[in-house]
Structures are given as structure tokens and as C-alpha cells.
């Protein structure tokens, strides 16, 4: 192929062609993987990202021809299994993304291969479907009495060992606790502030609370509301919500993603058209509405309206600051914060807004780590991938621990817990410190001097 190195134009992304029967053709996806893997073999820029690329290059380097043609095609699935759709290769590394003529979209090719695997059924399908049903799991696990049992079981070595052999959830992986006080049943409604629009931001916010905040860690959601209230931004919590669909997307279960979107999009689109900015406290959920659903449903007016209204919470707060509408008097210095930018925040292409916000706090030093933690949604808790997820995250654990911070923090709280676990493993050989995990929204609430 004779083509220019890299592209001079801004990257674009093609819609995901999941309604075309060709999308699910094994023969066609194999041909496309052969084409793209050959380009990757000649490039190798992504070798340090996840394990998909080292697996691919090892297969090629061990083949009799030392080229991709020496690798049996059935081995391509090993590359697919290692991808957790973080999107970083597409958005931060690849010079051959559209409009470049080579048209490489590695994550969406992996998504297509996963969608075919999912339709065909895999040995781990029951486990994978169960883990990715975050809304259903949350509803069941937060039933009174059940919640205490589930949380206690998650801490019992015998139950974890049973969970590992029966379900394939690694016994050592961090798993979230379920709350007895769901966010959506316990939040404080907004005060009746008059919305103040700025040049960059709208004056009222709708909160898509997310499964994780609602069923697992409601405190982050309450912190977001307190920060908005402190800044006199009126808010509503979205009346009805289902899972955003990201855990199903990571599995390749596109039918379930679309079914969830059909529940969420009409409700969210109405809020968007009523002039609300929509905010979710979890970067993966934000990315789902900002990027994946608009590419899955390119002709759906609701999906496009929600995309236009959706913002990361710190993108919103920094926008308020630029509009002169953010309170910047903080009463509580926070010391040293070691802050991690998760992949699904990086690929939103909005810059380091969380870092900018934390740096507004006086007597607070922020060190930033911009590298994959390896947690990757449900991928990192699976028995066959957990050790790799710790290996991928190790440079992050080390860098964040070396900063000797008072707080470790990530926009993705799942990544935060994974990092906390990884630092704990490093600390076996290191002196104990008093580092605490706190979400950036919690840190801002503390810095404002607002009570829990
Ligand atoms: S999307 Fe992320 S996990 Fe998948 S291949 Fe690219 S860098 Fe690796
Ligand atoms: S995804 Fe792009 S940057 Fe990464 S190895 Fe393949 S061709 Fe190179």
C-alpha cells in the first residue's frame, strides 16, 4: 500500500453499521481483521497500551513466516479477547484513522468481532451477561436483607472462591459493595434557583445518576448535587433511567445496548430540548451518550440531541468558571492529590478539566497520571483477565504511590478502587502511608467546606 504517513485532517468516525447483515459475517470480519492487523504489524505504535497488541505481535513474531500470513486465522480471537474497548488506540495513537484512506478503527473492529462472538455464544456467556446486567443486579442486590448478605458474602474467602469457580469472578478482584440507601430514593431535591446561562454553559442541569452511583456508591452523586447547589445551579435527577449500556457494549451485545437506549433516549432528549445540560458522574456512561450511541444510531434525532446536551461534570464546572459563574473560594486545602485520568475521560477530547478544577483549590498540589489503570469495567474482575489488569495498571499504581499523596483520585471510581488495590499490593514492600481514595467530586465538595 502506498499511502501518506498519518492524516492531516481531523479524525472522523464512521457510524457503526450493526444493522447491515454483513456486520455479523464471520468471513467479512476475518478479512477486515487481516487487513487491519497487517497495518498494525507494520506500525506497532500501540504495543504499550493494552494486551491486544502484544498478543498480536507475539503471534506474528512466532509465526513461521514472521508475517501475519503465518498466523492461523482462528488465533485472531485471542487479540479480540484482550480488548476492553477503552478507545485509547483510536483516539490517542493511531495515525490511520478516517479520513486516512487506510480507515483503521481498531476498537470498533474489535466491537464487531465481539458482537459476532456474543451472537455465536461463548463458554463464559452466562457469567458475562450476569456481570454486565448492572441495573438488574443493583435492583436485586439492594433489596433489604439481601444487601447485607451480598456485601458480607463478597468479603468471605469461601464465598469468593465459590464465585470464582462457579462464575469466573476472580477471588482477589475488588468488587463493589451495594448500598442500603439508593441515590435515587434519597437525594435532596434542588432549591429553586433561577437558571443563569453563560456563554459556554446552560444554567440548569439534569443528572443521569448511573447504576454505580444509584446502587453502589451514592455519596459521589450527593457530592455532585452539593457542588451544583453551592454554585446555585438548579438540577433535576432524570425521572426514569436504565443502564447506559456500556457494560453490554463491552460484551458486544448490541441488541441489549439498543433496547436500553430506547428506554433512556426519549426521557433524556426531552430534557435536552427543555434546555438542560445532562451530566453523569461516570465517564463511561458520559462517553456512551456522547459517542457510542450517536454512532450506533446516527439518524436518531433523540440520540443526537442527547449527545449535544451531555457533558462531563468537570467540563461543565470549568465551563461555569470561564463564564464567571463558578464560586472559587475554597475553605479547605487538600494537600497532595495524585489524580488519574481514566481512558473514557481522555477519549472524550475535552482536555484535563478535572485537573484544572482541582488546581483551583489553594494549597493543593495535583500530580496527574494519564495511563490505563487496567480495570476496564467488568473485564478486570474476570478470572482469566484479572492478573493482566493488574499488570497493565502497575505503572499507574507505582506512579501514583510514588507521589506520596494524601488522596488518590480518578474520575472513574472503579478505576480508583482498582488503583487502591494495586497500590496496596505494591505496599507489601513499602512503608505504610495514609493515602485515601476520594472521587474528584468528593474532593471538590470537601474543598468548598460542604458537609457529607
Ligand atoms: S480499544 Fe483499548 S483495549 Fe481495545 S485495542 Fe484499543 S487500546 Fe486496547
Ligand atoms: S491501531 Fe493504529 S497506531 Fe495502533 S498499532 Fe494499529 S495502525 Fe498502529
- Computed structural class: alpha/beta
Instruction: Provide the list of bound ligands, each named once.
Output: iron/sulfur cluster
The unreliable regions are none
Distance between the termini: 60 Å
Number of strands: 8
Descriptive key words:
22 helices, Rossmann fold, binds iron/sulfur cluster, 3 domains, alpha/beta, four-stranded parallel beta sheet, 50% helix, 452 residues
Description:
Helices cover 50% and strands 6% of the residues. The protein has 452 residues and is of the alpha/beta class. The chain folds into 3 domains: 100 residues; 139 residues; 120 residues, Rossmann fold (3-Layer(aba) Sandwich), CATH 3.40.50. Strands 2-1-3-4 form a 4-stranded parallel beta sheet, with helices on both faces. Strands 6-5-7-8 form a 4-stranded parallel beta sheet. The longest helix has 20 residues. The model has no long low-confidence stretch (mean pLDDT 89). The site of one iron/sulfur cluster has 13 residues, from helix 4 and helix 5.
Structural topology:
Blueprint: H1 26-43, H2 52-61, H3 76-81, H4 88-93, H5 106-120, H6 125-132, H7 134-141, H8 146-155, H9 157-167, H10 183-186, E1 205-207, H11 211-216, H12 218-230, E2 235-237, H13 246-251, H14 254-273, E3 277-279, H15 283-296, H16 301-309, E4 310-311, H17 313-322, E5 335-340, H18 343-346, H19 353-358, E6 364-369, H20 383-402, E7 407-410, H21 413-426, E8 436-437, H22 440-447
Parallel strand pairs: 1-2, 1-3, 3-4, 5-6, 5-7, 7-8
Helix pairs in contact: 1-5, 12-22, 14-16, 15-16, 20-21
Bound molecules: iron/sulfur cluster (SF4) (2 copies).
Amino acid at each position: 500500500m502506498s499511502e501518506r504517513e498519518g492524516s492531516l485532517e481531523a479524525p472522523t468516525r464512521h457510524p457503526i453499521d450493526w444493522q447491515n447483515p454483513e456486520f455479523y459475517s464471520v468471513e467479512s470480519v476475518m478479512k477486515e481483521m487481516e487487513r487491519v492487523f497487517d497495518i498494525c504489524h507494520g506500525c506497532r505504535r500501540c504495543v504499550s497500551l493494552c494486551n491486544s497488541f502484544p498478543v498480536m505481535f507475539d503471534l506474528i513474531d512466532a509465526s513461521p513466516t514472521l508475517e501475519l500470513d503465518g498466523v492461523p486465522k482462528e488465533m485472531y480471537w485471542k487479540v479480540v479477547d484482550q480488548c476492553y474497548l477503552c478507545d485509547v488506540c483510536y483516539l490517542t495513537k493511531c495515525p490511520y484513522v478516517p479520513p486516512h484512506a487506510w480507515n483503521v478503527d481498531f476498537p470498533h473492529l474489535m466491537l464487531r468481532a465481539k458482537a459476532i462472538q456474543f451472537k455465536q455464544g461463548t463458554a463464559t456467556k452466562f457469567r458475562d451477561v450476569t456481570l454486565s446486567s448492572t441495573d438488574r443486579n443493583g435492583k436485586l442486590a439492594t433489596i433489604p436483607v439481601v444487601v447485607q448478605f451480598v456485601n458480607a458474602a463478597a468479603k468471605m474467602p469461601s464465598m469468593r472462591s465459590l464465585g470464582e469457580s462457579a462464575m469466573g469472578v476472580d477471588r482477589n478482584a475488588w468488587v463493589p459493595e451495594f448500598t442500603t440507601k439508593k441515590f435515587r430514593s434519597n437525594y435532596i431535591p434542588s432549591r429553586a434557583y433561577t437558571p443563569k446561562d453563560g456563554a459556554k454553559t446552560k444554567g440548569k442541569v439534569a443528572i443521569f445518576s448511573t447504576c454505580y452511583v444509584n446502587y453502589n456508591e451514592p455519596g459521589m452523586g450527593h457530592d455532585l448535587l452539593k457542588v451544583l447547589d453551592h454554585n446555585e445551579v438548579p438540577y433535576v435527577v432524570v425521572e426514569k433511567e436504565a443502564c447506559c449500556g456500556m457494560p453490554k457494549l463491552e460484551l458486544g451485545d448490541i441488541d441489549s445496548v439498543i433496547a436500553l437506549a430506547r428506554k433512556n433516549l426519549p426521557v433524556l432528549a426531552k430534557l435536552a430540548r427543555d434546555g438542560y445540560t445532562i451530566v453523569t458522574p461516570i465517564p463511561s456512561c458520559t462517553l456512551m451518550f456522547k459517542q457510542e450511541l450517536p454512532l450506533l444510531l446516527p439518524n436518531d434525532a433523540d440520540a443526537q440531541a442527547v449527545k449535544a446536551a451531555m457533558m462531563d461534570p468537570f467540563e461543565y464546572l470549568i465551563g461555569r468558571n470561564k463564564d464567571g459563574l463558578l464560586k472559587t473560594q475554597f475553605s479547605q486545602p487538600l494537600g497532595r492529590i495524585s489524580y488519574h485520568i481514566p481512558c473514557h475521560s481522555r477519549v472524550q477530547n475535552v482536555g484535563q478539566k478535572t485537573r484544572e478544577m482541582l488546581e483551583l483549590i489553594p494549597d493543593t498540589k495535583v500530580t496527574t497520571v494519564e495511563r490505563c489503570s487496567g480495570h476496564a469495567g467488568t473485564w478486570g474482575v474476570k478470572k482469566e483477565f484479572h492478573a493482566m489488569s493488574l499488570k497493565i495498571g502497575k505503572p499507574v499504581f507505582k506512579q501514583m504511590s510514588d507521589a506520596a499523596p494524601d488522596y488518590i483520585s480518578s474520575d472513574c471510581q472503579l478505576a480508583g478502587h482498582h488503583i487502591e488495590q494495586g497500590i496496596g499490593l505494591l505496599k507489601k514492600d513499602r512503608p505504610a502511608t495514609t493515602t485515601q481514595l476520594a472521587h474528584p467530586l468528593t474532593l471538590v465538595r470537601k474543598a468548598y467546606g460542604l458537609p457529607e
